[in-house]
């Protein structure tokens, strides 16, 4: 209706375990006429530096003149990109066999448990928390405090690295992100150190 195309990043879809949360934008009726979905092995298989992914451009997505967006997308990709190397493609295929999927799901479960630990710890400190369910990140509401100031305080006083919400744009200011992508002991230790700080 608005002449826009939604580009939906589904890289964290495998972390979604709730039945009532869509894993793909194409679970939403009508999305095939206004959306492109991108995904990769980066988040759930640890391929961040390897760069292997895929894009879904449905045939129902058309320009105002009726031509397929998919055709233009294909032209751009085949002109500008030669594809992933055989080694990288082999790694991707290994991720998709039974053993690979079992390992990936075990790793995702591990990170989701870390997220629960981080979320519970932040809540015990009295913070309002977002995320930590169906996602490997926990966002702490700083109640108007500067995310960069809080990042600096935590880094210098507790030797814990967090991510200031301002790094995600103006809407992220006032929040701090904790990542569950770490060994379990590190998550437990980080919460223990944070509990010793004075946040007033």
UniProtKB/TrEMBL annotation:
Residue ranges of every copy of the Aminotransferase class I/classII large domain listed in the record: 2-182
Keywords, in A-Z order: Aminotransferase, Pyridoxal phosphate, Transferase
InterPro entries: Aminotransferase_I/II_large (IPR004839), DapL/ALD1 (IPR019942), PyrdxlP-dep_Trfase (IPR015424), PyrdxlP-dep_Trfase_major (IPR015421), PyrdxlP-dep_Trfase_small (IPR015422)
Cited Pfam families: Aminotran_1_2
UniProt cross-references to SUPFAM superfamilies, sorted A to Z: PLP-dependent transferases
Gene Ontology MF annotations: pyridoxal phosphate binding; transaminase activity
Record's protein name: Aminotransferase class I/classII large domain-containing protein
Species of the source: Florenciella parvula
């Amino acid at each position: 209706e608005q002449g826009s195309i939604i580009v939906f990043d589904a890289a964290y879809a495998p972390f979604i375990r709730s039945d009532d949360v869509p894993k793909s934008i194409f679970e939403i009726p009508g999305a095939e006429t206004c959306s492109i979905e991108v995904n990769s092995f980066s988040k759930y298989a640890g391929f961040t530096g390897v760069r292997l992914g895929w894009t879904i451009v449905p045939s129902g997505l058309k320009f105002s003149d009726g031509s397929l967006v998919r055709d233009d997308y294909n032209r751009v990709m085949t002109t500008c990109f030669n594809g992933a190397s055989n080694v990288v493609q082999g790694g991707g295929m290994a991720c998709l066999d039974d053993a690979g999927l079992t390992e990936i799901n075990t790793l995702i479960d591990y990170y989701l448990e870390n997220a629960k630990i981080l979320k519970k710890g932040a809540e015990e400190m009295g913070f309002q928390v977002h995320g930590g369910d169906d996602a490997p990140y926990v966002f702490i509401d700083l109640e108007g405090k500067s995310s960069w100031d809080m990042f600096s305080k935590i880094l210098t006083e507790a030797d814990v690295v967090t991510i200031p919400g301002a790094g995600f744009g103006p809407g992220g200011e006032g929040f701090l992100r904790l990542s569950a992508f770490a060994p379990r002991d590190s998550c437990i230790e980080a919460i223990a150190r944070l509990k010793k700080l004075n946040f007033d």
